[in-house]
């Protein structure tokens, strides 16, 4: 821990502590010792480790350095509490930033792996106190190729935050998109204290505004169709269909879907072009699969028939990562794309099917 209580009952940072003085843990009030060698970052440690459940002992140097770097970034302009004791939930986030507007911001600097269940428990505990939670990831995460599911766990306002202590590098990734059979794409920005400061300042957040109405600082989490104007559409579609054929040969496609199409006299590599143009991020299935399911559901609704948008959306939520927080926005944007294509009409939270997308003939 970086902070302890001295004999005068005042908080003291480890790098400013006096070895001759005695210190106590702010959470359990038991004695702690100052550790500060040539190879170690100054910190306090419990003399009896098991007596306190509010701390994780054995913090790495990276974690201590990252925590201090984040503190210095915020403390210039905002009131920041380091390792605040939250007795109601027996938790202690790394930092608590007091925001002049809106809820306070709890910041966790995560260097080691953490399971989804434990992450959810920590998030739920902090949010139960009315706090927002922002996770900043350490070097172990920065050096990995992160899966879409793992990214969704740590997203905050559509951004993924990193700090690498040895390089003193702040980094943020945003505008994630995923074209089928291609690597995950995102934009990268070096240095994010200014972004975090705007969040800490409680600036008006237009995160809930519809797509296209966000400010320039707000990232778009997804794209609903192929957006690269330099790409050759015919080549793209041919490439996608070739990949689908390969998946079928390798047996890597849901057999129920294959059989369903076969009974209709159709093949997977004949699906409508529209199904092959998605770039949605946040899906636990490929874009083509999500779009194909939607096309088939609309066929079941039937031409010139209505369906409640809420009912259709409920069928589609299962195809997103459990940790992803914006499935409704993606589904809504996909409906809008279909409406622009003349396939459906949106009216009063209902959908009218006005055209059926055709499978490609041999």
* Mean residue pLDDT: 84
Strand content: 15-25%
| Stretches with pLDDT under 50, minimum 5 residues | 203-227
**What is the overall shape?**
elongated
Q: Kindly state the percentage of residues in helix.
A: 25-40%
- The secondary-structure element order is EEEEEHEEEHEHHEEEHHHHEHHEE
**Please, what is the oligomeric state?**
single chain
Q: Helix/strand-derived class?
A: alpha+beta
Order of strands across the main sheet: 6-7-8-9-10-11-12
Strand tally, please? 15
- Count of separate structural domains: 3
Q: Rounded to an integer, what's the Rg over CA atoms?
A: 25 Å
Distance between the termini: 67 Å
Characterize the largest beta sheet: strand count, sense, and whether it forms a barrel.
7 strands, mixed
Per DSSP, the total helix count is 10
